[in-house]
Input
Amino acid sequence: MTANTAYIVDAVRTPVGKRGGALAGVHSADLAAHTIAALMDRTAVDPGAVDDVILGCCDTIGSQAGDVARTAWLVAGLPDHVPGVTIDRQCGSSQQAVHFAAQGVMSGTQDLVVAGGVQNMSAIPISAAMLVGQQYGFSTPFAESPGWLKRYGDQEVSQFRSAEMIAEKWDISREEMEAFALASHERARTAIAEGRFATELVPYVLPDGTAFTTDQCPRETSLEKMAGLEPLAPGGRITAAVASQICDASSATLIASEAAVQAHGLNPRARIHHLSVRGDDPVWMLTGPINATKHALAKTGMSIDDIDLFECNEAFASVVLAWMKETGAPHEKVNVNGGGIALGHPIGATGTRLMTTLLNELERTGGRYGLQTMCEGGGQANVTIIERLG
Output
């Protein structure tokens, strides 16, 4: 252990609820409070020693407004003096929460930080925050800014267009994407059946007294069913079958310094080996993980072969397939328990959901290094490399 090391003490998540499913009626503050409280219980750390609570969340309006990180901590019944902050790096928000937490620890200014995320996409539709200004007569999203138009021109900027552009540029067929999507569902169903998520899940007790214990999004599907779907754009290759699912969830990790590990008698499960974030062309938007991964490997002196497991968020099948082609990451090591196509992509919560699953799978398989990355709005991508301990 070294003084500037950031450790992952524990990581938990709720099961992911499908759109309109088990968690649809749960207030976002209560949803996040649930995983925070479980994290405190599992680690048995004094919550009063926590320096900060950092949660990722997008579309912070309605039940997600008012600094939901602070609210969630208080809803969990935890000490008033512990602050909280909510951050938005789009799909990478909670992965960035871990980065900020780790940086606080590595700088020596903090010792214990809760980092996680929450999103109730059933209650607050995706992009709601960007569109809400219309009812007040405000200008609509960033791509209508005069400065933006001067730099990038008047063209569509959307994740759907980006996914199509990527499929075309990397010559990824609809059939290839559908085969990838089918594998995601099959891997997720296998993981659930074998209980691979059991140690990371914290069931949520619903108002009727029943416990929500299992991810809802994986489907029984087939290539034939996928082939029958209409593309999202006329003549396009992208369909709903090869896109991540709208859903609801929360997730949380506890990041600690060596001093905190010693003082509280903690047994960390992993350490942060590397963290970085890079930007790419914002019109292409979803290509960020490619250069971000290459940058991370160059910074660490590692090769793709040094990584035992990868989590690359399945915003769309084309994103991960292009990333695998460019980096050489083998499919047998990528999203081995399924990804966002099968398990859903609860935007603000996905970063620490992926990290929680990555950590547990490294422990299950005995792997040493895991790399996580995800495409993010604005053409950005975070990369975290963790090293399993023990």
